[in-house]
Amino acid sequence: MRAVRFDSVAGKLELAEVPIPALERDEVLVKVAACGICGSDAARMDGFVQSRMPIYTPGYEAAGVVAAVGDDVRSWTPGDRVVVAAGRECRNCPECREGRGSDICSDLRLMAVHYDGAWAEYLVTSATALVSVPDAMPLEHAAVLSGAVSTPYGAIDTARLRPAEAVGVWGVGGLGTHLVQLARICGATPIIALDRRPEARERALDRGADVALDPANKRVASYIAEITRGRGLDVAFDFVGRESTFEQARAVLGERGRLVLVKRAPEGSLVEHFSEGEDGRTVIGHTGYRVRHLKALVELTERGRLDVSSSVSAILPLARVVEGLAKVREYEGNPLRVLLRP
Ligand SMILES: [Zn+2]
């Protein structure tokens, strides 16, 4: 099969011919229909995140069709349309040994970090890392769900966001823009988007933000106090991760407010939490998502609550991966997804 291979020692990316991987008893072979190019793929290749493999296949936002299943797999058959979670269970932690699967494994293995990713004609993952995609849903849309939409959805779950809560989103790029869209679905109000770039603020308003502010504006805190009628934010999501955004977001939290720091590049455990009580306010770290989040997003899309059709901006063949990466780097922060179609 053809696969994009990245040599992390030489820093070299190339399209190569490699064997179709063999299956273990609990694994599934998926023919990839589409896989996103994420900003953190680029970050990994630029050396900001180390892969555990010297040479590997990048890509972890994939959807496709089951091509073959291992001897023990009963849940899938060839021809099933699926979206692939970016993590699979470790088989070793206490949760896995009890057979409780990928939703609670405490040491998830990550695609393109611990095992080969999806910029290839085929990928292998565990049977529990797949979610069924309805016939009416394009696999390209399903691939977007596993990328820029699932991490914000996981962050909303981490925040325990409830209807009518006031939300602020710092950084409305790929992840933040989808968070705005999802917060709207969850009934948050008001939703305040903060971004330095006017075009990003414009887009956030299109996707459901009530107000969009430039965080450099000296009056941000008083605007937020005014918009929330003095109660401050119930939840602040920080996708920027600078000290300035952190301080600004923390300063406008209301009573029992939660500040969720969303880390872009998944490393180690897929969802990790830390919190510190401070006058009833909480700071929480969040990374990634779980299979149950992906299931929920497929459901929301199938029932017409969530529309990601405008989130696909380009679909390129594997051979044009370098061009695709350039687009992602150049459109840094743009919510529109660039997909590879092997
Ligand atoms: Zn485990």
Could you say which overall geometry the principal axes of the C-alpha atoms support? Answer: globular
Largest sheet: 7 strands, mixed
Q: Which structural class is indicated by helix and strand composition?
A: alpha/beta
Number of helices: 9
How many beta strands in the DSSP annotation?
18
**Gyration radius, in Å:** 20 Å
Unreliable stretches covering 5 or more consecutive residues = 265-272
CATH superfamily descriptor of the largest domain: Medium-chain alcohol dehydrogenases, catalytic domain
Present as ligands are: zinc ion
Q: Report the order of strands and helices.
A: EEEHEEEEHEEEHEHEHEHEHEEHEHE
Going by CATH, the architecture of the largest domain would be Alpha-Beta Complex
Question: What average pLDDT do the residues reach?
Answer: 89
Alpha-carbon distance between the two ends: 10 Å
The CATH topology of the largest domain is given as: Quinone Oxidoreductase, Chain A, domain 1
CATH class of the largest domain: Alpha Beta
Strand content: 25-35%
| Domain unit count | 2
Oligomer: single chain
Helical percentage? 25-40%
Q: How is this structure best described in words?
A:
GO terms for molecular function: metal ion binding; oxidoreductase activity. Keywords: Metal-binding, Oxidoreductase, Zinc. Residues 8-340 form the Enoyl reductase (ER) domain. With 342 residues, the protein is α/β, with parallel strands linked by helices. It is built from nine helices and 18 strands. The strands form four sheets. Strands 3, 5, 6, 9, 10, 17 and 18 form a seven-stranded mixed beta sheet that branches. A six-stranded parallel beta sheet has the order 13-12-11-14-15-16, sandwiched between helices. The relative contact order is 0.16. The structure holds zinc ion (ZN). The site of zinc ion has 9 residues, from helix 2.
